Amino acid sequence: MRLTFWGTRGSIPTPGTQTVRYGGNTPCVELRLNDDKLIILDAGTGIRNLGDKLMEKGESINAYIFVSHPHWDHIQGFPFFKPAFVSGNYFTIVGGETSKMTLQKMIADQMNSVYFPIQLNELKATINFRRVGEEEFEVFGAKIRTTFVNHPTFAMGYRITQNGKSLVYISDNEPYDRRSAHEPRKVEKVIIEKYSKNPHNPNQFIFDFVKNADVLIHDTTYTPEEYVDRVGWGHSHYLFTLNVAAEGNVKRLILFHHDPSHSDERVDDILKKCEKEITNRHYNFDCLAAAEGMELEI
Ligand SMILES: [Zn+2]
What does the pLDDT look like over 183-242, one tens digit per residue? Predict the structure, then answer.
């Protein structure tokens, strides 16, 4: 499998001189499977540049788009994804939904004529939707597993395995804490029930989900100091992210979903602190910070 990062920033695009190296586009990762088959992880603003590259090739496209959840930063690039405007192209959008709103409506609503000149049903490509809960299925011969993670309303994590190699993508996830969970939270009931199951560490199923992955891409929005004022916003600080990687015995951790207020230097600093923690705690994995344009072989 081969990865290319097209968007690494959380919450909102951050163009400018302070974010040149790690990038300002919101989440989008290109995953190439056997025979160059394509899965796109999230449709943040980074998907626009990926779309332009796909258009240059001039081939018809049959690809999957796995959406972690429908918050703006994960879908807002889709209306600017040129291959969706081309007839003969075929996309399957995969993601979770709530009892109140379907996956298709989540994607269509941001293209409502109040907000956008072209509507979803006017796109020329064939676009199918596949709702997922927690399940296992196959895409292009790769094994896919999904799980709900801790994020306002909901978010999905994806585990993709092919040729004995595994990638886990968890773009947005917050450490689950029993005390704060007692306060009113805007999280789907299924998530509260899931986390409440384990009497010891409610985050254990996340550790199990990432177990022995070759690459883990995980939310690292905050420093621990910043997190104190942002409990319940749905994101991780780097100590928790390191904990997930260590407990899951992953081989390589990619820090992802950089906070929009973090300059390149701040992300460098977070990476350095992570490397120091890894050494001090005798953890046994590599750590990188996701950067736009970065490519990785799994
Ligand atoms: Zn996000």
Answer: 556 778 888 887 778 778 889 999 999 999 999 999 999 999 999 999 989 999 999 999
Q: Please tell me what DSSP assigns to residue 85.
A: G
DSSP 166-207: EEEEE-S-----HHHHTS---B-HHHHHHHHT-SS-TTHHHH
Q: Delineate the domains of the chain, giving CATH numbers in brackets.
A: 2-297 (3.60.15.10)
Largest CA distance in the chain: 55
**Quick one: average pLDDT of 161-169?**
98
* Ligand 1 midpoint to CA 296 (Å): 22
First to last CA, the chain: 5
Distance from residue 155's CA to the centre of ligand 1 (Å): 9
21-39 pLDDT, tens digit per residue, is 999 999 999 999 999 999 9
For residues 243 and 274, is the Cβ–Cβ distance under 8 A? Answer: no
User: How many residues belong to the chain?
Assistant: 298
User: CA 38 from chain center: how many Å?
Assistant: 16
pLDDT of 183 = 59
Give the H/E segment covering residue 155: strand 155-162
The tokens for 283 are 């953890």
pTM: 0.96
**Distance of alpha carbon 64 from alpha carbon 130, whole angstroms:** 10
- In angstroms, what is the span from residue 125 Cα to ligand 1's centroid? 26
Place of tokens 């199990």: 208
Measured N-to-C along each axis, helices 238-247 and 264-280 cross at an angle, to the nearest 10 degrees, of 40
3-state helix, strand, coil in the chain (%, to 5): 30, 25, 45
* Pairing mode, strands 28-32 and 2-7: antiparallel
Distance 153 CA to ligand 1 centre (A): 12
Structure-derived torsion over alpha carbons of residues 216, 57, 15, 122, reported in degrees to the nearest 10: -100
Q: Which helix (H) or strand (E) holds 136?
A: strand 136-139
